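Example (one chain per record):
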Amino acid sequence: MKNVSDVYTLTPMQQLMLIHALSNPQSDTLFSQFQYTIKGNLDHEILQQTWEHIVQRHPALQTIFLWKDLNKPLQVVKKETKLPWVYQDWRNLSLDEQNIRLATYLHEDKSAGFELDRTPPIRFGLFQLKDDGYHLVWSSHHLILDRWCLSILADELPRIYASLQQNKPVNLPPAKPFKDYISWLQHQQEADAKAFWHSEFLKYQNGLPLNTIRSFDSGETAPKQAAQKATFPTNLSEKIQSFTRKEHLTLSTVLQCAWGILMINYNSLNDATIGVTVSGRPADLPGVEKIVGTFINNLPVRIVYEETEKLVPWLKKNQKKMSEMQKFDYVSQDSIQKWCQLPYTEPLFDTLFVYQQAVSLEQPLTEDVSLIGIPEGAKSNIPITLTIEGSDSGITSWISYTTNDFSDASVAKLLEQLQNVLEWIVENPQAELRELSLFTEEERQTLKNRRNSRIQSPIEQSHIATQRSIDAPRTSLE
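Predicted structure:
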């Protein structure tokens, strides 16, 4: 084939993403629009050349996807690609006119989507607002990169820009290709992964313990995405950080378990299954931290306890389990369902937990030019997603949800209860788990009745089965 550098299979997560993209062409769940304000004396032609150089460095950014008349879909790396780049000078327009044009571009850009089998799904729009002010829009598809990749590219951007601006050779080591990860996947032993996931879920052949939380009456009929954000009080953030250091626990373990405890309380059981987003980058793959591509995965995690269990040993047990799971976090959701004989009429999870380190939104390009990122709203095809962002300065949480499943008041209550659970954890390290009480006895009975009444009709079962085949990734992509 002409203009082809390499051909290889998709990862399990990429396959599910492709199914979702083809089955839901109007969905923007896997479409990213990163936006930046640029301040300073920018050379916009050098910036374009910089991004062209970055795309040529990383095979994942030169990749298209083929599936027609094939037994398995393939990703094809092109030798050469022309990066779609739009530059427009809006300096003669009023601020209102600039805002209208930008809104129009963003809408049309998102509506256009990508032709995944024709051109690599990445493009840019740069709009000059004044002599020293620009707005950059970087659009891409999650099939070719995940959130981790942003820091890799952010590190390369100023170095390449400076070299090109000074007419010097770009002095960077060759980029490691995403194909290295594909090769790593092909050498993994299925038996080991199967044994781990069997130990977690094989006994649930009649369905997983999902969460009654979804049964809140929102009053909405048309599905719509919404989000609520809560910054933890400084004293609570400090207490959580101190607790994790003292008990040798990771921040993500404590926060994930707190969310699990909350779900268990809504379940009226001592067992719940939540989805957890993992980086998916194997520690034994050399240079994996510098590879651009999609490694991210969303996997089911059981949160279960005996009422007499002590809090800290239970937290450490869960941390050990998550560490063990990292060896097998490349496995697809479909494989877990098949291996554990779980019914396809139910999703593996209906809530998702995402933990990520806070990153600076401002990045210097040169001494007098800086890029300031504009946060992109959370998108998900999961009913409710909790995202936690931790840093030395504090902890921030936000929940994205579908308004036809949850009322605004119920989500606000969840955010409040999450902080209550964390406050209880750090104040009662020697406690037994049964000592935590979030609900009155009357509220507990209401939740229990609600759970027992959730018997679906054949129509509802069919709808869920259809959603499992279409929305297989069950993903929240940040």
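Caption: The chain has a mean pLDDT of 87.
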